[in-house]
């Protein structure tokens, strides 16, 4: 029995420490006034995560370790319950259709606010965005910590758009009284122009629409349509950790099923919030 060669020892150590140092922690926090059930989907060919779905009570935080070079999507399900007769778990928004708490490889059924990640991609950089291309269901922010680079910064949509969503895109609660999600124009109308498909399947031919522009005005850092890359893709070097926060700012925390008092409801839905708020200390003017 020979000892390990020095080279092999070095290689093994580098391997261990390499993955140790490069793996990230995603810390989920729920600042909403209601429970959120995060869903996690790993991209094809990436290492699976320790969880693909769990409950996050209001005020709760939970760290999830994420392997280096992971890519995938994260979203928040709302208004979930287990059917007492069938035992089936379903959510009114962003359900993954698994019938269970864990999504187990299933993605979000739109409309859903999505956070998308490619860790350790081209040039060793992380790429991430928050997307409203598949619609919107709740406010969500992604904030890197410990990363490097000019646009290694917070992104997301901290605004509650469910009330302000145009009627033709609005998804209503069971009792029909409350907006619980907001469809993309692509989903609502199936038009190639909105979906950036067919003849409109390139950045040159697919332009922002009145609908995507409403999303963009409310949430300037989030993807509002398929070719919105320039202002919506963020990059970090040095493998940061990420905080993923649902309802980051005050005023977006009410329960989606609990109707607001009339006067305030009118005031809030009268106009879209024109400024995205990046921190909880910076509440959005109109909201
Ligand atoms: C961030 O940097 C990348 C790479 O330089 C660039 O493509 C992207 O447009 C930048 N994103 C923002 C939001 O400025």
Automatic annotation (TrEMBL):
Gene3D superfamilies: Thaumatin. Residues 1-23 form the signal peptide. SUPFAM superfamilies: Osmotin, thaumatin-like protein. Disulfide bonds join 32-247, 80-91, 96-103, 152-236, 157-219, 165-182, 186-195, 196-206. Pfam families: Thaumatin (PF00314). The keyword Nucleotidyltransferase does not apply. CDD domains: TLP-PA. Keywords: Disulfide bond, Signal. The keyword Signal applies. This is Thaumatin-like protein. The lineage of its organism: Eukaryota, Viridiplantae, Streptophyta, Embryophyta, Tracheophyta.
């Amino acid at each position: 029995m020979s000892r390990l060669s020095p080279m092999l020892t070095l290689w093994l150590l580098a391997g261990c420490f390499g993955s140790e140092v490069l793996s990230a922690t995603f810390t989920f926090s729920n600042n909403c006034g209601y429970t959120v059930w995060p869903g996690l989907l790993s991209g094809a060919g990436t290492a699976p995560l320790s969880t693909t779905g769990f409950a996050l009570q209001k005020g709760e935080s939970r760290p999830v370790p994420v392997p280096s070079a992971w890519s995938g999507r994260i979203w928040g399900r709302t208004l979930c319950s287990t059917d007492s007769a069938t035992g089936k778990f379903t959510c009114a928004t962003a359900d993954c259709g698994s019938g269970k708490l864990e999504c187990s490889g299933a993605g979000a059924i739109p409309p859903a606010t999505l956070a998308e990640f490619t860790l350790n991609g081209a040039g060793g950089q992380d790429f991430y965005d928050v997307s409203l291309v598949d619609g919107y269901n709740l406010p969500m922010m992604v904030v890197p910590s410990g990363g490097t680079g000019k646009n290694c910064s917070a992104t997301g949509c901290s605004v509650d758009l469910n009330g302000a969503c145009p009627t033709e895109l609005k998804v209503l609660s069971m009792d029909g009284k409350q907006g619980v999600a907001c469809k993309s124009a692509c989903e609502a109308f199936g038009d190639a122009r909105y979906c950036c498909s067919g003849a409109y399947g390139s950045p040159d031919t697919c332009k922002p629409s009145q609908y995507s522009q409403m999303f963009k005005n409310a949430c300037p850092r989030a993807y509002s349509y398929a070719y919105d890359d320039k202002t919506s893709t963020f990059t970090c070097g040095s493998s940061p950790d990420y905080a993923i926060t649902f309802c980051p700012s005050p005023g977006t925390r009410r329960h989606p099923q609990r109707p607001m008092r009339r006067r305030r409801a009118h005031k809030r839905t009268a106009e879209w919030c024109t400024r995205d708020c990046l921190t909880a200390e910076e509440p959005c003017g109109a909201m």
